[in-house]
Amino acid sequence: MDADVIVVGAGPVGLLLAAELRLAGARPLVLERLAEPSAEPKARGIGPLAAEALRRRGLGEALDAYREQGVADKARDHGSEKGHFAQIFKIDPALQEEPDRVGALIWQRDLERILAEHLTSLAGDVVMRECEVVALVQDDRGVTVTVAGPAGERRLSAPYLVGCDGGRSTVRKLAGFGFPGTEPTSVVRRVLTDAPGLDRLPAPGWTATGRLMRAPGMVATIEFDGFPEDRGLPLTAEEMRQSLLRVTGVDVEIPQVRGPLRFTDGARQAATYRIGRVLLAGDAAHVHSPNGGQGLNLGLMDAVNLGWKLAATAAGRAPEGLLDTYTAERHPVGAAVLHNTRAQSALSLPGEHVAAMRDIVSDLLDLPDVNRYFGRMLNGLATRYAFPYPATHPLTGRACPDLRLVTGPGETRTISELCGSGRALLVHAPSQPEVAQVAGPWRGALDVVEATVTDRDDLAAALVRPDGAVAWASGPGPADTVTLVTALRTWLPPA
Ligand SMILES: Cc1cc2nc3c(=O)[nH]c(=O)nc-3n(C[C@H](O)[C@H](O)[C@H](O)COP(=O)(O)OP(=O)(O)OC[C@H]3O[C@@H](n4cnc5c(N)ncnc54)[C@H](O)[C@@H]3O)c2cc1C
Fold first, then answer.
1. What is the best residue among 16, 42, 74 to mutate for testing ligand 1's pocket, by most ligand atoms within 8 Å of CB?
2. Which cofactor does it need (predicted)?
3. Ligand 1 centroid to 244 CA: how many Å?
4. What are the residue boundaries of the structural domains of the chain, listed by start?
């Protein structure tokens, strides 16, 4: 075996998954077909859940270094700092239920660099570039892939393999995952260019045949037919020219294109995220329109959900059924994102009927409750995993906010500062010593901290899983230690 887990794809999800695996004690090996990281300007930010997950691993400062630039870029390109639903930029961060829980504005290529450095600091040089997975077989002992590179083909094996190889995932196809969903309604073509002829284009906006979008150094179209026959082929300057001609009636020659990008709003999701020893995460498991900027929040949270579970399973120390909770928890979250992106696609179709509907949704977004409804839908903060035991506290099953804790006289810490080890964390008030007592047998897999939570008066103790989900929580008064023991048995290696 060449590793405990082979991760296919060194995009953001593969890099974070490999780091999480290493943190949890597994040896990952990452196979990436590209010689260099992609410079395509894709995501311009990550949602609050993913940002909190990275802060828990000590990457907060690195993210914050890009914030100012990100705010400026977003204001320049969208004319607003607000979030959007179907390009209606009205979702107001200040109106949201938990306004302190915010995402990070960072371009995807910068995020990938931070994640690559984080992985190297934990695991050394485990990314093999110019290694394209072209074949895969699994049996009851492990998975073997055939990898093609400049030096020819070779085989590599591991007990488990995760496809983080993007929307057109080879792993998904080779392993036989079903990928049901809906066909595209629109195709976006985008290039980076300063071609002088662009000045002749009309103002950005709807036309009779599509929509034109502009930002400094960038031009893009949306069309509702004219899908390319082979979506795997890269967008060319000529295809962009023809699209501009169809949408605006203006023939603009584009001598050179940089960063050509073509994507659709096809929405598909793997029927399960695991077949035997092969798993999927990120875009390999779900594709949808980038409307609302949810792809990375979703994919990075797949990675943090899976890393510790798979590491424990590969080491043979996972509680029964732990790995199955990955699909059980993450599939519904992905399905919800597909659902709202389909609604956004419907609201983005051309024609007077949809335009009327957009006007009404836009007016509704002026109502604070509606604004919060849409914000909650897109930021994922309301995500609540269902656990196989009673959830007696409102935080159980939800991502733990970055609570402030008093850990000693004049000493305060935050949850994220206590989670760098990647182990589960049990926090309890000094008045609840019984919590630490019952957790004694699990001490080998758990950090226990005596502290008082200062920013919630309904919380005296919490068990936080390695992925930041609250596994159990208790208010002031006698703690429900029976359920705590069930939670510890459910998530941690047998005591
Ligand atoms: C225009 C655009 C804007 C977007 N904006 C946002 C946004 O604002 N916010 C947001 O959250 N999301 C956004 N997204 C979505 C986001 O970019 C994706 O969700 C994200 O890239 C998914 O990461 P990933 O690691 O799963 O896959 P990818 O980033 O696609 O990475 C997959 C990796 O696998 C490699 N690979 C593929 N096949 C093989 C193989 N056979 N062998 C070895 N390696 C292989 C690829 O080279 C690649 O490096 C946007 C997407 C687009 C297109």
1. 42
2. FAD
3. 26
4. 5-180+268-379, 186-264, 404-491
